[in-house]
Amino acid sequence: MTRDPAFDVPLLAKRIEAMRPALLILDPIVSAVAGDAHKSNDVRRALQPLVDMAARIGCAVIGITHLTKGTQGRDPTERVTGSIGFAALARVVLLATKAENPAPGDPPRLLVRSKSNIGPDDGGIGYELTQAEAALGLWATRIEWLSPVEGSARTLIARAEAVPEEDAGGELEEAKNFLCDLLSDGPLTAKEVKADADGAGFAWRTIERAKRELGVEAIRTGGLGKSGRWEWHLPLRPPEMPKTATQKGWRSKENLAVLGNAASVAKPLPPDTEGF
To answer: Gene3D superfamilies from the xrefs (predicted)?
Structure first.
């Protein structure tokens, strides 16, 4: 049965209040939205009961999501995947990013403030991920906090995301790999592709560009009207190469054919012709 958090959270409140948790983590936060995560009204309707419940029991709530790919340079708060309602409802928005090409002395990763209704809304802190032995023979990843950084979230993230020109196409390559993996087990509807792409933080225009470059085919199935749907298919493998022009008995000119053009495949010469 599909559950709507806007109605289910109040029903679960008694159980949560009995547990008295100090922290509730939603990862990803879009999973708490039963409606359209791109519509502000649906987002607020789904999350407001969580906010009310947390205030009632004194529990902090952390929602985890992605930044939409292909939105570099924009206001970081507006880059949160889905509706602006996610960031609007939060009291504090923190963004984590990895520096693509850190200068000497710059931290490899940053945690910056993009919004705060209860304090400063700029600056942040550098950090890195290291390996540590938590117990004998048991290694785990931990955060090592570095020096504070100053500046707006927009400036700090833009600096971290800056890449050399030769690496600028990396985002498209990521989208192409994502699309290949997604469709490798069979076709999916355009809506399913978009939902998965949104969840992975890809901008739809980047996915569409990857679709064109890969030659992914959109095929209408199920008839016309609401009963039909568009399915995305990976392209078929290219046809095998035709016979080579060096084989005796084939005209060399006709064998310089475009791959896959059956009409251009060379014909055998008459028996009394040597061919070359």
So the answer is: P-loop containing nucleotide triphosphate hydrolases
Length of the chain: 276
| 144-177 pLDDT tens trace | 999 999 888 888 888 888 765 544 467 888 888 9
Domain boundary among 165, 188, 222: 165
Q: Is 15 left (phi over 0), alpha (psi -120 to 50) or beta?
A: alpha
Q: Report the b/e string of 119-155 with b at 16+ CB within 10 A.
A: eebbebbbbeeeeeeeeeeeeeeeeeeeeebeebbbe
Residues contacting residue 128 through CB under 8 Å, at least 6 positions apart? 107, 108, 109, 143, 144, 146
The domain in which residue 223 lies consists of: 170-233
Query: Hunting for tokens 């209408």 — which residue is that?
Result: 220
Q: Cα separations (Å) of 45 from 4, 51, 106, 132? A: 10, 11, 41, 42
Same domain, 78 and 127: yes
- 112, β-bridge pairs: 95, 124
Please name the helix (run of DSSP H) or strand (run of DSSP E) that holds residue 159, with its range, or none: helix 153-161
Q: Are residues 53 and 123 in the same domain?
A: yes
Model confidence, pTM: 0.56
Instruction: Identify whether the C-beta of residue 9 lies closer than 8 Å to the C-beta of residue 49.
Output: yes
Maximum average pLDDT range among 125-134, 156-165, 265-274: 125-134
Read off the amino acid at residue 153: A
